[in-house]
Write a structure and sequence with these properties.
By secondary structure, the protein is α/β, with parallel strands linked by helices. It has 2 domains: 2-130, Rossmann fold (3-Layer(aba) Sandwich), CATH 3.40.50.2300; 140-231, LytTr DNA-binding domain (OB fold (Dihydrolipoamide Acetyltransferase, E2P), Beta Barrel), CATH 2.40.50. The chain contains 7 helices and 15 strands. The strands form 4 sheets. The chain has a 5-stranded parallel beta sheet with strand order 2-1-3-4-5, sandwiched between helices. A hairpin with a 4-residue loop joins β13 (197-201) and β14. The longest helix is centred in the middle third of the chain and has 18 residues, at 112-129. The two termini are 28 Å apart. The mean pLDDT is 85.
């Protein structure tokens, strides 16, 4: 699920913008949400620090000591993959805004059609070019940072994320080239994201996540899994991935 965040100093604008986005998500059956719409910078920074965001929409002139460009610069240093969109009536800021690898620049007043064009183009870009996302189907992409583990369940794969689970008919082999080095196979039925692991219990053969969910470590995969997990050698992280 794509997570959109909006920051503007006008509450009516935040409400209108959120409703416009949600209408676009529903119209095109896009798996996305507006996770936060705020005029409070402290709340924004706290959310960004503790939550994976995929799209950040910023007003440039926030009537504060900190501008939208300042926020973009701070976020970009931490998150290279986030899509940044500026929304403002100040056209003179356009050239400065693109310094932060801006995906788009929306001018006030914004129309539904113009926003819809941007969202659909962004979705197409995510599907085609971004290595930080896993494409489940044409309308659903998952930020890999949100995936705890992928479970093989018969003919299906279940992508277990912090937000929800996604179930599709597929196999591990079809996704092996899409996943980063953070993903390791620890069992015939599990590929885990080591960045979201809370504990590895090699004695009792399980991997624990922060919500007390766990995956088993299979005997066939144990040695190679522990080698990768402990030493970072990812050359054989999907051993027997086709089975």
């Amino acid at each position: 699920m794509l997570n959109f965040v909006i920051c503007d100093d006008s509450s009516p604008v935040l409400i209108r913008f959120s409703k416009m986005l949600e209408a676009i998500f529903i119209k095109h059956n896009i798996d996305a949400k507006v996770g936060l719409a705020t005029d409070n910078l402290s709340k924004l920074f706290n959310y960004i620090e503790n939550t994976t965001i995929d799209v950040l929409i910023l007003d440039i002139n926030l009537k504060s000591d900190i501008s939208g460009c300042d926020i973009a610069e701070m976020v970009r240093k931490k998150n290279k993959s986030v899509y940044i969109i500026f929304y403002t009536g100040h056209l003179e800021y356009a050239l400065v805004a693109y310094k932060y690898k801006t995906f788009d620049y929306l001018c006030k007043p914004l129309t539904q059609d113009r926003l819809e064009e941007t969202v659909l183009r962004l979705l197409e870009d995510v599907n085609v070019s971004s290595s930080n996302f896993v494409k489940i189907n044409s309308k659903t992409v998952i930020n890999e940072n949100d995936i705890k583990y992928i479970k093989k369940d018969g003919m299906k794969l279940v992508f277990c994320t912090f937000e929800r689970n996604y179930s599709i008919y597929s196999s591990f082999s079809k996704f092996s080239n899409c996943l980063s080095d953070n993903f390791i196979r620890c069992h015939k039925s599990f590929i885990i994201n080591i960045n979201n692991v809370t504990k590895v219990d090699a004695k009792n053969n399980f991997v624990l996540f922060n919500n007390n969910e766990f995956c088993s470590i299979g005997a066939k995969y144990k040695n190679s899994f522990l080698e990768v997990f402990n030493n970072g050698d990812s050359s054989d992280r999907f051993r027997s991935v086709n089975k």
